[in-house]
Design the sequence.
């Protein structure tokens, strides 16, 4: 996601204006009721307790008929219960071998499985370090090259964020929070990745 955004920034249209600001207070850079559409992918889970302030600020910058398009992940107690990390890697390895997903996609799926397997609201890779340590030993003792490549990519892409925390709300709580500030016009589900059922795209109207 970060790499894709950096590519867009480098090749942006000359008519576009790049603004660096704080999601929670953009008043110094963006006027009220001046923006047609705001797009934020998985942003609410990064607010760390400031969700309502964030949503209020998005509403402020949008025009009367403006839209906020965002993908939100919510906690599904039944979907992600990752007890055996190596078995999860074996499943992903099989998908790579069948050319259903790439090594990079497999590493991201694995990271999501770890992060969102927690029942708690506050989630992080750092809460699973002991299991990951044991997993490293298991990977080294076996010969699956694809699994080793997936794990190597996982460390390259996700390990720098191992101490980062996300807030993982249940669907009812998440939508209740959003409805305080916006009308939910549409909820759209993708069908091309494993977490789509718990990560819908919301079209929100001011």
Sequence:
């Amino acid at each position: 996601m970060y790499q894709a955004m950096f590519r867009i920034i480098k090749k942006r249209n000359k008519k576009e204006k790049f603004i660096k600001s704080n999601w929670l207070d953009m008043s110094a850079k963006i006027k009220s009721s001046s923006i047609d559409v705001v797009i934020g992918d998985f942003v609410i889970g990064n607010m760390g307790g400031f969700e309502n302030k964030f949503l209020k600020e998005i509403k402020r910058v949008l025009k009367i008929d403006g839209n906020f398009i965002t993908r939100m992940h919510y906690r599904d107690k039944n979907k992600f219960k990752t007890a055996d990390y190596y078995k999860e890697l074996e499943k992903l390895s099989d998908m790579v071998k069948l050319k259903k997903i790439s090594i990079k996609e497999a590493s991201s799926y694995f990271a999501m499985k770890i992060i969102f397997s927690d029942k708690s609201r506050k989630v992080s890779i750092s809460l699973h370090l002991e299991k990951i340590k044991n997993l490293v030993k298991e990977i080294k003792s076996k010969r699956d090259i694809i699994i080793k490549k997936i794990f190597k990519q996982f460390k390259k892409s996700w390990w720098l964020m191992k101490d980062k925390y996300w807030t993982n709300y249940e669907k009812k709580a998440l939508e209740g929070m959003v409805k305080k500030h916006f009308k939910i016009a549409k909820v759209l589900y993708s069908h091309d990745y494993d977490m789509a059922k718990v990560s819908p795209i919301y079209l929100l109207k001011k």
About this structure: The beta strands are 35-41, 62-71, 122-123, 166-167, 183-188, 201-205. Residues 36 and 61 are 9 Å apart (CA to CA). The longest helix spans residues 145-158.
